[in-house]
Amino acid sequence: MRHSLDAMNHHTLHVEEGRIADKEFHAALLLATGNPFIVSLTNGVTAAVNALTEFKQRIAPLKRDPVPDHLRVYDAIAAKDPEAARSAMGELIRLAILDTPVKQRPKPAASNKASRVAHY
Question: Which of 33, 55, 79, 96 has its CA 20 to 30 A from that of 44?
Answer without folding.
Answer: 79
